[in-house]
Specification:
alpha/beta, disordered N terminus
Amino acid sequence: MMKMKKIAALALCLALCTLMLAGCGGSAGQSGGSASQSGEDVLIVATSPDFAPTTFVDTSKEGQDQYVGFDIAVAQYIADQMGKTLVIQPMSFDACTTAVSMGTVDMALAGFAWREDRAENFNLSNEYSPSDDPNLDRQVIITLKDKEGQFTTPADFAGVKVGVQTASLQESLCREQLPDCELVIIGDLGTGLLQLKNGDFACMASAYPTAEVFMNNDPDIALAGFDFEVDDTGTVVVMQKGADELTAKVNEILAKAAEEGLMGGWYAEAVELAKSATASEVTFDDSGNAAS
């Protein structure tokens, strides 16, 4: 029943997108246009709800309200400040940027880190973060509890299968810092966790906050013992290349949220909800269909 409700909500979102694009005569161009600039008072945001506590699903809720997490709170604040109604369009992680490029959504929020290739192909907001806690910037490897602490250096990963989410920061880090590991590309971390427990690979790369959720919810999961070397980075909003006016507005809103000290509260609420029995990481394919 819940799956049918999710599909119905998705269909409503897609129908709304179609009407909006018809109203503006097609997808946004490189001049900085976007999906919501058709005159409709909506802000369409792509997200991949399989990345707790950043974006995930509260199964106790229905429709648009089921999408929760730190980035969803940020998206809601942006929409509120712009005087628009937030419409969440769930899809796979790599499909989020494709939708932004095509102009079928206004922006994507799904725990995106700043990367040079993203900056070349998209407008990225200023980085934002809920706090100065260094753990929020950590990029780690998780494994099963019986292998805890066994992978501490790059040499320990020689020939070891490591699961990484496609098009993610973790994939880039693995290729750069663990060149001798055997990468196994996965669609989302929720499914990847099941594959890890099934023995499809020995380790999985993850942002520390997500790894912490996994470890809190599953005693069989532990840190492998290796941290990637990363610069201190926050999260960014991904927007269409050339959408300079929208980008400036988003940066203004993000600065206001930071000045008002709102982000820490949003993150704390997301973490607590991610630990609850109603929290779920839901996978969507590139066509926007929820996995069974």
